[in-house]
Specification:
GO terms for molecular function: hydrolase activity. The chain is an alpha/beta fold. It contains 13 helices and ten strands. Helix 5 crosses helix 10. The radius of gyration is 22 Å and the shape is globular. The structure holds 2-acetamido-2-deoxy-beta-D-glucopyranose (NAG) (2 copies).
């Protein structure tokens, strides 16, 4: 009698377990590029990469450029991109395609690889958290450490001078709205990345080859000015007032890099996280990032009158649901 009720209870469950095995998904590897002042070995970035690996069942790698924090401030972006390009080309794991996750400034490295890296492995999805895609109008408040004194000194020299462009990484994507002409003449990275002057059709082709472009803006972002740059929005020439939405900028209407083409194909996902710069909850990561790391959408398995989801859509850390990771290291 006892055995009989045991079987009655457990037989349907074992069928479900068996069926759900066939619903397993395959995921491409992903790489993470961290933000300014940060480095791969720091806890936030490590935890972020490990959690996403675990949830998506894919291998995640944080790629360091130079020595990490210092070089993130002082190595010019074309060089950062060239180093990152060589690194991804050497990783045999990425040859079948991979996804890129960029954190703030790291998004610029990710886009640099996507657009400029000749012979690099194919990039499937680009996931951007607080990426300064359309530029930033002021340098993030730094502080009084030795590094910051050096930064202020370099900025005062003139942001679009050759010297500052070669020695201060964020100067490569600063776009002063009242100094657009000097920006176009002197800025050595963002105008090229956004195909603003010499339209290189190769960059556009590579950008539009993405399967998904995921753009996450942080509602309380005080580091990126304006925060709408995370969605490719920006101030108009000569104005410091409200930022235009991406769709009203020339980059979009003239489709310099293919953002409009991607958007019209439904491949640009605009998400808003509720925190400050790079402060993201686990549930936001599950909703905005994890689905793009999994090759096939998780699907439902039906057996008789029971309906369960496959393992990818089951929350593995129910006790930690509202945990938050802060990925921005301030001084
Ligand atoms: C455009 O970019 C490609 C790839 O980097 C390069 O080979 C080509 O020379 C560039 N074309 C122009 C006109 O600059
Ligand atoms: C920006 O505005 C200035 C002043 O009106 C003008 O001289 C300049 O040509 C404009 N630049 C662009 C890129 O539209």
């Amino acid at each position: 009698m006892a055995l009989k009720s045991f079987l009655m209870i457990f037989t349907p469950l074992s069928i479900i377990t068996f069926t759900s095995i066939s619903a397993s998904t395959h995921a491409l590897p992903f790489v993470v590029f961290h933000g300014i002042s940060d480095q791969c070995s720091n806890e936030g970035v490590t935890q972020f990469t490990e959690l996403l690996s675990k949830w998506s069942g894919s291998q995640g790698y944080c790629i360091e450029i130079g020595n990490g924090a210092w070089d993130s401030w002082f190595m010019p972006f074309l060089k950062q991109t060239a180093i990152a390009c060589e690194k991804v080309k050497k990783m045999s794991e990425l040859r079948g395609g991979y996804n890129i996750i960029g954190l703030s400034q790291g998004t610029m490295v990710g886009r640099g690889i996507l657009e400029f890296c000749d012979g690099g492995p194919p990039v499937r999805n680009l996931i951007s958290l607080a990426g300064p895609h359309a530029g930033i109008a002021s340098i993030p408040f730094c502080g009084s450490t030795l590094v910051c004194i050096l930064v202020d000194f370099l900025l005062e020299l003139a942001v679009y001078s050759n010297f500052v462009q070669e020695h201060l990484a964020p100067a490569n994507y600063i776009k002063i709205p009242t100094d657009i002409d000097d920006y176009r003449k002197g800025c050595k990275f963002l105008p090229k990345l956004n195909n603003e002057i010499n339209r290189n059709s190769t960059y556009r082709e590579r950008f539009t080859s993405l399967q998904n472009l995921v753009l996450i803006m942080f509602e309380k972002d005080e580091i990126l000015v304006p925060k709408e740059t995370s969605w490719f929005g920006y101030y108009t020439n000569g104005s410091w007032s409200t930022a235009l939405p991406a769709q009203e900028t020339t980059l979009y209407t003239e489709d310099w890099i293919g953002l409009k083409a991607l958007d019209e194909a439904g491949k640009v996902k605009y998400f808003k996280a509720s925190g400050s710069h790079l402060e993201i909850t686990y549930s936001e990561m599950k909703e905005y990032i994890q689905p793009y790391l999994v090759e096939n959408e998780p699907y439902l398995v039906e057996t008789g009158h029971l309906r369960i989801q496959d393992s990818h859509s089951v929350w593995p850390f129910s006790g930690l649901k509202e945990a938050t990771i802060k990925l921005y290291i301030s001084n």
